[in-house]
Amino acid sequence: MATEVNKGYDDAQANNESSRSTFIYKDLNLFFTKHPVTDDVSKLTDIQAIKRSVRTLILTNKGERLFHPEIGSNINSSLFELYTPIMQEELRLAISDVIRLYEPRVVLHEVIVNSATSQDLDQNRLRIIIKFSIQNVPNEIEELEIVMDRIR
């Protein structure tokens, strides 16, 4: 009987130490749409779940999360600041830091912060493009675009 337990352990170790990743990331859909078959809240999986997580991290202000007030990037306050190259670099660093610290599933490649046109500057609008890959799939680079606009 002891040999059967060892055999099962060896089999599990062989599967767990394989080079292929079997992780499937899941998250709730924050729009709370109903799943058509199960009538339950629909789920986001894999890349969509990670993109939602990155977007949430970026749009969270420090102090908004009750038991983790340190999480956030505070880039919402930058919509009313004078847009300079120094401000652009500060935003890029803040976004990079919050992703590297609080999203371990992501390998960050590039963060681009810019206003596409002078009209965007006049309307206090920022365009943020984040290029990253998932930790388990390093060959596929994903892109997430966030357009921040002030609300009157």
Q: Give the strand content.
A: 25-35%
One letter per element, helices H and strands E, the order comes to: HEEHHEHEE
Overall CATH class of the domain at 47-149: Alpha Beta
CATH 2nd-level architecture of the domain at 47-149: Roll
Strand order of the largest sheet: 3-4-5
Class derived from helix and strand content:
alpha+beta
The CATH topology of the domain at 47-149 corresponds to Nuclear Transport Factor 2, Chain: A
Number of strands: 5
Mean pLDDT: 78
Tally of DSSP helical segments? 4
| N- and C-termini, Cα separation | 71 Å
- Unreliable runs: 1-20
In angstroms, what is the radius of gyration? 20 Å
> How is the quaternary structure best described?
single chain
Largest sheet: 3 strands, antiparallel
Helix content: 25-40%
The outline comes out as globular
Task: Provide key terms for this protein.
152 residues; alpha+beta; Nuclear Transport Factor 2, Chain: A; three-stranded antiparallel β-sheet; two-stranded antiparallel sheet; 4 helices; globular
Written description of the protein model:
The protein is about 35% helix and about 25% strand. By secondary structure, it is an alpha+beta fold. It has a domain at about 45-150: Nuclear Transport Factor 2, Chain: A, CATH 3.10.450.40. The strands form 2 sheets. The chain has a 3-stranded antiparallel beta sheet with strand order 3-4-5. A two-stranded antiparallel ribbon has the order 1-2. A hairpin with a 2-residue loop joins strand 4 and strand 5. The longest helix has 18 residues, at about 85-100. The protein is globular. The model is unreliable at about 1-20 (pLDDT under 50).
